[in-house]
Amino acid sequence: MTGIQTAINDVDVDLGRLFASLVREWRRIAVVSLIVTGLAFVLAWMATPHYRAETRILIETRESVFTRPAVEGGENNTNPVLDEEGVTSQVEVIGSTDILMQVAQKLELAKRPEFDPAANMSLVGRLLVLTGLRTDPGEIPAKERVLKAMREKLYVYRVERSRVIVIEFSSEDPKLAAAVPNAIADAYIAVSRDAKLQSNSDATEWLEPEIADLTKRVKEAEAKVANFRSQSDLLIGQNNSVLATQQLSELATELSRVRANRAAAEANAQGVRAALQNGGSLDSLPEVLSSGLIQRLRERQVQLKADIADLSTTLLDNHPRIRALNSQLADLDRQIRNEAEKILKGLQTEAKTAQLREQQLTGDLNSLKAASARAGDQEVELRALEREAAAQRQLLESYLARYREASSRTDRSYLPVDARVFSRAIVPSEPYFPKILPIVGAAFVGSLLITAIVTLLQELFSGRAMRPAPGAVVEPVGQVEMPSSAEPPVPEPDVVVAEPRAEPSAPATPKPKPSPELHPSLLAELPPQPPPTLGEVSIERAAEKLIAGGATRAIFVSPEGDEAAATAVLVAREVADAGLRVLLLDLTASGAASRPMLESGAYRGITNLLASEAQFTDVIHADLYSDCHVIPPGTADPARAMRAADRLPIIMNSLTTAYDVVVVECGPADAEEIRRLVSSATEVMVSVIEPADKAVAEAAAELEAVGYGKPTLVTPLGYKPPSAPVPGRSAA
Questions:
Q1: 523 alpha carbon, distance to own chain's centre
Q2: Dihedrals φ, ψ of 37, to 5°?
Q3: Per-residue confidence (pLDDT) for residue 386, from 0 to 100
Q4: Which residues face 479 on adjacent strands?
């Protein structure tokens, strides 16, 4: 079990590149559309013509205004004869077996080969019957075969939001196509008329004994009502109500009026009392103003005030005349106040009188309540008897009216059907099938659309129409078990890849040829290299760190140039020897890491993948001397490939999903240049040949300063390759 990470990226669709595939594949789309159109034309031309005719039936009341049955109240029945569900039910009646059998017998359809599949069975049909793939039509009775053929050619439906029923029938014979729907309509009218006659006869036979029984029950019910009313002494007053109840209602009305008058008198008295106690103005009280005496006193008061005002212009306030007038004015105020007190006493007397009247009415009301309650109990029983008698009487009258009407219609044989044929089928002159032009046009348009959609889906699923969205991240999603196989892995469907364009095929992979600098026999003769110093780790330690730490990416930076690229190759092979699936991605300009592994620089690689000239399976190659896989720089234009550098994180995520460890050799790159390659579970390493080289120290310090942590310094010095090839290694 190996920890694998799934790429969780926001990928956008490049609409320009997506629809550009239609331009590239226009020849294939046109050829497929023309082939399908040609086949549709041939099939339509060779098809047997079919003719269709229709008959229309209108569901409506056929009764005239003079013969229409009368409903309760003496008015004519103007309701529609059938509702929407009723019209739909008539559609089923028209297509019933009885009507179809009548039409089949009348027109002798059983003698026509069109309605008998057993009469003109083709050779293919006979072979299907013999092999058991088809039921023998001869085993089915002739009537069922005819009915089945009729139902296949018959179409009965109701016109939406109307009471029109359409009967459509198709046939190879135009005359028969018109004769069948007309015959079905006539049979439906006849069946409906017979059903009405039978229903009318059954109604008269049932109504006669019911009317006799109802007459007897009505007499008994009315006798019970009369006896109960006389025994209970339930006198009827106005509005057909019991006398006690009527008196109670009138007394309650009078009591309400008296209470209102008392409340009004008390309120008026309270207002006058408040004005007298508070010394307020009495002019605003309606009761005071309505007094004639007070009005005259007020007029005298106004006159005195006017005289005082006139004299004040020539006389002083202590003048005898002024003082006399002021004295008279004060006497008038006292008289007005005395009159207001008399009005207050009158209002209080009126309120007390209304209160006494209210008490008397309340006592009378309580007495009538008891009497009304007793009458109410008896009235309940009386109403029940009256309802029973009224119901029996109403039913009897209804039965009598229906019986008289049914009897008269039966005697005169007048039963119009609630339907009429208002449009009969005529012999069609043109077949409805096949319509060559619509069929050919539909086939062309349909095949064109389907082929275009298939082309767009191929472009979309291949990944050529995808582009990475900013802000893509990678999150660990669990453990996935990867099968061990020497074949290059195929990325998941969400990988953005592109199919190869037309170009010369890559050269054949050369046969395995021992590399002088890596072959075991030659390595044995080399002088031993000095061990690594204290600050660097060996190839074995670097591989152990990747395996033990669970890293899925190893980013190698080689400040010393292409000579140090061998470190990434040795680490990748060491991890592959441990049983993990490893891929080395060579991002150097010269292919320093992949060239010793493939012994050629003519293979397609990462630049071809970025330029949409190849797929993953075209750029992943096997190492000639280990189980490691490698992606070389490739043969595409580097400038064109760099324009699609935004796709590099998606490619890295896809490779991380397919492999346990992805080793990337970046050459002398800086921290900003490897930003697109770094994600979680990534180990950054620096290849070292000369520890004293100043470029190594500067590169390590820059990586640590940017935030990648302290990089691991890996040196190939002292590495001892295995003396014999590891089992399982094979050349590409």
A1: 72
A2: -65, -40
A3: 84
A4: 3
> What span, in angstroms and rounded, lies between the C-alpha atoms of 437 and 446?
14
355 and 258 in contact (C-beta within 8 Å)?
A: no
Structure tokens at 266: 């008390």
* 261: nearest Cα among 349, 386, 175: 349
What are the angstrom distances between the C-alpha of 43 and each of 39, 46, 50, 441?
Answer: 6, 5, 14, 13
Structure tokens at 171: 């046939």
Provide the pLDDT for residue 567: 92
In which element (H, E) is residue 665 found?
Answer: strand 661-665
Look at residues 194, 162, 196 and name the one whose alpha carbon lies nearest to residue 423.
162
**pLDDT tens column, 344-394:** 777 778 778 877 877 787 877 777 777 677 666 777 787 788 888 899 899
- Which whole-number Å values give the CA distances from 301 to 195, 293, 316, in the listed order? 101, 12, 20
Q: At a CB cut-off of 8 Å and minimum separation 6, what does 516 contact?
A: 522
CA atoms within 13 A on the CB side of 416: 14
The pLDDT assigned to 58 comes to 94
Question: In the beta sheet, which residues pair with residue 661?
Answer: 582
Q: Widest CA span of the chain, in angstroms?
A: 160
CATH 3.40.50.300, the chain: domain bounds? 487-503+512-714
Over residues 577-600, the pLDDT tens digits come to 998 999 999 999 888 889 889 888
Residue for token pair 């930076």: 557
What tokens were used for 114?
């069109």
HEC sequence for 236-303: ECHHHCEHHHHHHHHHHHHHHHHHHHHHHHHHHHHHHHHHHHHCCCCCCCHHHHCCHHHHHHHHHHHH
**How buried is 315 (Cβ within 10 angstroms: 0-12 exposed, 13-18 middle, 19+ buried)?**
middle
Write out residues in the chain with pLDDT < 50, as ranges.
Answer: 1-9, 73-75, 470-534, 724-732
Query: What DSSP letter does each residue of 540-569 carry, written as one string?
Result: HHHHHHHHHHT-SEEEEE-TT-GGGGHHHH
Tell the burial category of 598 from Cβ atoms under 10 Å away from its Cβ (0-12, 13-18, 19+).
buried
Q: What is the pLDDT of residue 555?
A: 94
Asked if residues 269 and 344 have their Cβ atoms less than 8 Å apart, the reply is: yes
Instruction: Pull the structure tokens for residue 140.
Output: 């089915």
Q: What is the pTM of this model?
A: 0.41
pLDDT confidence of residue 569: 93
pLDDT of residue 467: 62
The per-residue pLDDT for 116 is: 77
Q: Closest Cα to residue 625, out of 498, 497, 504, 732?
A: 732
Residues of the chain with CATH 3.30.70.1130: 52-196+418-423
**Tokens in use for 385?**
């008897």
Asked if residue 170 lies in contact with residue 177, where contact means CB atoms within 8 angstroms, the answer is yes
Q: Which parts of 314-428 fold into alpha helices (H)? A: 320-412
| Cα–Cα distances in angstroms (integers) from residue 224 to residues 214, 221, 334, 384, in the given order | 16, 5, 77, 11
- As its CATH architecture, domain 52-196+418-423 has 2-Layer Sandwich (3.30)
Cα Rg for the chain, rounded, in angstroms?
A: 56
Q: What is the pLDDT of residue 732?
A: 28
Return the CATH number of the domain spanning residue range 487-503+512-714. Answer: 3.40.50.300
Identify which of 651, 696, 372, 375 has the alpha carbon closest to the alpha carbon of residue 559.
Answer: 696
Beta-carbon contacts of 245 under 8 Å, excluding residues fewer than 6 positions away, are 237, 372, 375, 376, 379
Residues 6+ apart with CB under 8 A from 615: 462, 497, 498, 499, 500, 609
The helix/strand/coil state of 477 is strand
- b/e sequence 354-368, b meaning 16+ C-beta within 10 Å: beebbeebeeebeeb
pLDDT value, residue 722:
58
